[in-house]
User: Which sequence fits this backbone?
């Protein structure tokens, strides 16, 4: 197994991890591995900005204002 050394870990962060490890009945090392595993397994977060421009080919040549008016007339 690999070894990870962390330098300049703030004391306050270490105390938080230590307290969390105690609550979970784990060693500090086990708790850090658990936390890192959870974060590494999470799906990457997507930004709404990644959606910019998607579907623009569908709307090419369509007058948006006219389309919205037509849809609203259908609501009645």
Assistant:
């Amino acid at each position: 197994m690999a070894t990870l050394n962390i330098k300049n870990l703030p004391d306050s962060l270490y105390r938080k991890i230590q307290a969390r490890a105690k609550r979970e009945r784990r060693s500090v090392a086990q708790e850090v591995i658990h936390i890192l595993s959870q974060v590494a397994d999470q799906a990457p977060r997507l930004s709404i900005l990644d959606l910019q421009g998607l579907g623009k080919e569908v709307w090419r040549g369509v007058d948006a204002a006219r389309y919205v008016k037509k849809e609203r007339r259908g609501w009645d």
About this structure: Residues 8 and 14 are 10 Å apart (CA to CA).
